[in-house]
Backbone:
């Protein structure tokens, strides 16, 4: 297992390099746009002299690489993500982002749990009914949801459950509150507010999980030990539960990381349409208002999350399937 | 084979049934949904109501000295106060000061060198929310903080720059503002560089509000718990979610009636209102048609009020073809605003035929922009240096927006130019930040834009946009005669004469058509019947403390 450790370390060492590239690109793109933070703030009554002064103060008059250097130094040395300029002027970026992350995570986690549990159930069901009409119907009906973009399904669900039936709250976020330092955060996870976003984020993922589980379950069902278990006369439930599921589900670990992508993409639309105060909504607001430090912090945080998810996925692969090995030197 | 076909048919049938069921739910519940909405929660007419629920915009900050946007000002005027304030009729009233300084009461003195000194006496009962008294030194501190370069206010020069020494302080050349003098604990003198009738209006703007020195100096996050002098205090501001205000029971101008006011910062206001989650909701033009229908249950709860703001078409007088006044006039006279108001906006917004809006002293129906006359418009275009529609270069109208389609009003204007002038105009949209910058830099031939007044003085729209030297002259309009009239009016102490000068200048501007006024704005709202005294003033002024609930 020494090789695995070396592999993990190597991957981890690459992470800062990738982050550096991502951050530099994001930084340059924000700075090279036609309008800067001060222009957004300025408004018609602003005084030119004052605008110049504020630009200097924010270092916007310096060349990009210098601005980037200053930003990264503050970030690494002082763990300082900077200050919001246009959306919450003068507030620390981290104080703005941290509560938002906690909000965005809630629908994300619930959606992940739903997608994986429902997907597993459907997958196993389809595998056990292989060859009957129920197999394709089970899988295909969820393919239907996978094919509808969130942007289309969400307004439709809002129309049904909110406007027409009135079962769910119109928009917004609520639930019991916890204090997380800069401000309180609502645990929508314990309220009706969670239902729509979780549903909309999870449904498209079910088919993918179900198909994977179906394939692995079918493979396992053909194994000798399953035949042995059946031959022993174990009840079917126990065969599936103890022998099949355990071995069929391991590969699922590897998809969790990848699902993060879909969740984050969806979060942007979902939060905007449903008025959930998470990072998706913040990102949109920050981009429109050219709030540089907020945009950058979001990009960096999201990029870090992706990198970590990818590393975990890759390392998990090698754990689960010894045939996939870190590099060729280990090959026969 | 057979089996596979069956399976596929089965799936399709299942999907069709599923979609069908959903459609039936949507369609059939339609009627119930409409009539039910609003009613179940409405009859909670208990007399114990203590909270007013509104939908509000998210402020950028609650620091009065750096705000310059309407969203932040809405809250800041309730939480803070200054020497003077505006009432709901937009008249200047004393706030922390005992009275408005005038020549008659000795508060205003014109010095021999042309400067003017105002003396303000502070109210004995003027207190911060934490009951600290407001002293003359507090007021001086506040002005100097607003003018401090570290405060990074972009508007301090505009609102306070008339005070002697403010510009030097802003440039970092002085530590104090020399024009502000503390006479004693309750008396302060402010000297401005010339007699300027609009100066007292500027003192009602948040840049001139008073902050608590001990709080501002010691706490970096003070705007999350600001200690002001206004009728309400901030109870809670949850970013992106809501703001709660709490009554300041000791407010020196009269304590608010309603204990707490809660602003939702997210969600569609009409949806929340119909769900009984709001007591008042602002409504967009899109929903207006439905609400103006007398048969609609919401119709009885509809109110509207005029606002000191307007929409206009701006012509860049520096670029072809709008460098020729005849072309500008022709384009203006080809637009039938009455018809747009009727067909597109259901007469919900009044047509503007002048730049100065009703509610300002210089408003007059006699001062008019060119009226709709397609015949003459064609003639003017033929008489222009471009000789008619064939001689014109390509023309683009710019507007703010990110949608793929033009605004309904804009499309109607384009259609009228096509029909009445035989001119095809392209439309270009830019996202707002880029749009404003491009307008300022003269990158467009023409654009549609709005203007919201900061204070009800003609200076804030005429001098600021049409003086050839003003940095906000976004059409690059220059007429020496207009310049002379505007500058004379700016400092004219006699108000009748001042109005006359502004009207003369405005008529000249309207004849030259750098701006073509389109519509005056109105604020449209739904107000629940149990809410009393919900005033819709034409500008952002403190008004929450007057609102009350009736016990049904």
Residues:
């Amino acid at each position: 297992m020494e090789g695995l450790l070396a592999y993990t370390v190597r991957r981890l060492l690459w992470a800062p390099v990738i982050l550096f590239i991502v951050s530099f690109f994001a930084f340059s793109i924000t700075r090279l746009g036609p309008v800067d933070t001060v222009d957004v703030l300025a408004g018609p009554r602003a005084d030119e002299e004052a605008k110049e002064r504020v630009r200097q103060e924010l270092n916007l008059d310096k060349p990009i690489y210098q601005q980037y250097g200053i930003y990264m130094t503050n970030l690494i040395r002082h763990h300082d993500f900077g200050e919001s300029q246009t959306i919450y002027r003068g507030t620390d970026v981290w104080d703005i982002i941290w509560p938002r992350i906690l909000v965005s995570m809630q629908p994300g986690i619930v959606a992940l749990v739903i997608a994986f549990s429902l997907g597993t159930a459907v997958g196993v069901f389809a595998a056990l009914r292989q060859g009957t009409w129920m197999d394709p119907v089970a899988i295909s009906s969820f393919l239907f949801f996978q094919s509808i973009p969130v942007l289309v399904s969400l307004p439709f669900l809002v129309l049904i459950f909110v406007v027409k039936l009135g079962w769910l709250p119109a928009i917004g976020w609520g639930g019991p509150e916890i204090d997380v330092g800069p401000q309180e955060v609502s645990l929508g996870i314990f309220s009706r507010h969670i239902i729509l976003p979780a549903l909309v984020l999870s449904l498209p993922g079910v088919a993918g999980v179900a198909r994977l589980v179906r394939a692995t379950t079918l493979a396992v069902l053909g194994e000798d030990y399953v035949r042995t278990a059946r031959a022993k006369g174990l009840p079917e439930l126990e065969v599936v539960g103890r022998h099949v599921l355990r071995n069929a589900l391991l590969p699922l670990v590897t998809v969790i990381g990848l699902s993060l992508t879909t969740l984050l993409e969806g979060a942007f639309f979902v939060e905007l349409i449903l008025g959930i105060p998470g990072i998706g909504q913040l990102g949109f607001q920050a981009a429109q208002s050219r709030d540089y430090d907020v945009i950058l912090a979001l990009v960096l945080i999201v990029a870090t999350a992706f990198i970590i998810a990818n590393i975990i996925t890759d390392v998990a692969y090698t754990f689960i399937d010894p045939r996939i090995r870190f590099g060729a030197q280990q090959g026969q | 084979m057979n089996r596979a076909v069956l399976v596929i048919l089965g799936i399709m049938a299942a999907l069709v049934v599923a979609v069908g069921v959903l459609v039936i739910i949507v369609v059939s519940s339609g009627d119930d949904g409409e009539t039910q909405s609003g009613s179940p929660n409405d009859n909670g007419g208990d007399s114990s109501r203590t909270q007013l629920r509104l939908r509000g915009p998210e402020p950028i900050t609650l620091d009065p000295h750096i705000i310059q946007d309407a969203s932040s000002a809405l809250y800041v005027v309730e939480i803070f106060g200054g020497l003077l304030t505006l009432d709901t009729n937009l008249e200047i009233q004393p706030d922390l000061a005992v009275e408005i300084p005038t020549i008659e009461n000795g508060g205003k003195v014109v010095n021999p060198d042309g400067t003017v000194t105002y003396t303000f006496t502070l109210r004995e009962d003027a207190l911060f929310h934490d009951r600290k008294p407001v002293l003359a030194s507090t007021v001086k501190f506040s002005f100097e903080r607003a003018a401090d370069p570290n405060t990074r206010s972009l508007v301090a020069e505009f609102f306070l720059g008339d005070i002697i020494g403010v510009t030097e302080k802003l440039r970092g050349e002085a530590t104090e503002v020399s024009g502000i003098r503390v006479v004693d604990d309750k008396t302060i003198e402010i000297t401005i560089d010339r007699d300027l009738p609009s100066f007292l209006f500027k003192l009602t703007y948040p840049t001139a509000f008073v902050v608590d020195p001990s709080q501002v100096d010691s706490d970096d996050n003070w705007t999350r718990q600001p200690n002001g002098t206004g009728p309400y205090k901030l109870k809670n501001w949850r970013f992106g979610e809501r703001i709660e205000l709490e009554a300041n029971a000791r407010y020196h101008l009269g304590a608010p009636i309603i204990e707490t006011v809660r602003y939702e910062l997210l969600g569609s206001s009409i949806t929340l209102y119909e769900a009984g989650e709001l007591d008042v909701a602002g409504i967009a033009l899109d929903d207006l048609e439905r609400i103006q229908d007398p048969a609609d249950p919401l119709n009885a709860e509809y109110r509207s009020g005029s606002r000191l703001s307007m929409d206009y078409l701006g012509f860049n007088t520096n670029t072809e073809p709008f460098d020729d006044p005849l072309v500008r006039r022709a384009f203006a006279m080809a637009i039938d605003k009455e018809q747009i108001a009727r067909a597109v906006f259901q007469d919900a917004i009044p047509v503007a035929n002048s730049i100065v809006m009703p509610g300002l002293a210089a408003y007059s129906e006699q001062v008019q922009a060119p009226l709709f006359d397609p015949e003459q418009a064609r003639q003017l275009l033929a008489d222009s240096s471009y000789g008619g529609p064939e001689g014109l270069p390509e023309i683009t109208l710019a507007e703010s927006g990110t949608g793929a389609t033009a605004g309904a009003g804009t499309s109607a204007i384009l259609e009228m130019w096509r029909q009445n002038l035989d001119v095809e105009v392209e439309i270009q949209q830019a996202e707002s930040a880029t749009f404003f910058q491009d307008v300022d830099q003269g990158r467009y031939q023409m654009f549609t834009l709005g203007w919201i007044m900061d204070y009800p003085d003609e200076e804030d729209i005429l001098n600021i946009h049409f003086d050839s030297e003003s940095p906000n002259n976004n059409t690059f309009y220059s007429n020496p005669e207009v310049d002379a009239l505007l500058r004379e009016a700016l400092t004219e102490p006699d108000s009748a004469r001042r109005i006359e000068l502004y009207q003369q200048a405005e008529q000249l501007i309207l004849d030259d058509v750098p701006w073509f006024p389109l519509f005056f704005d109105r604020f449209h709202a739904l107000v629940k019947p149990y809410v009393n005294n919900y005033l819709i003033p034409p500008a952002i002024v403190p008004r929450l403390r007057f609102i009350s609930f009736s016990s049904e």
The domain at 309-522 of chain B is CATH 3.10.105.10 (Dipeptide-binding Protein; domain 3). Chain B touches chain A through 59 residues (CB under 8 Å). The longest strand of chain B covers residues 302-315.
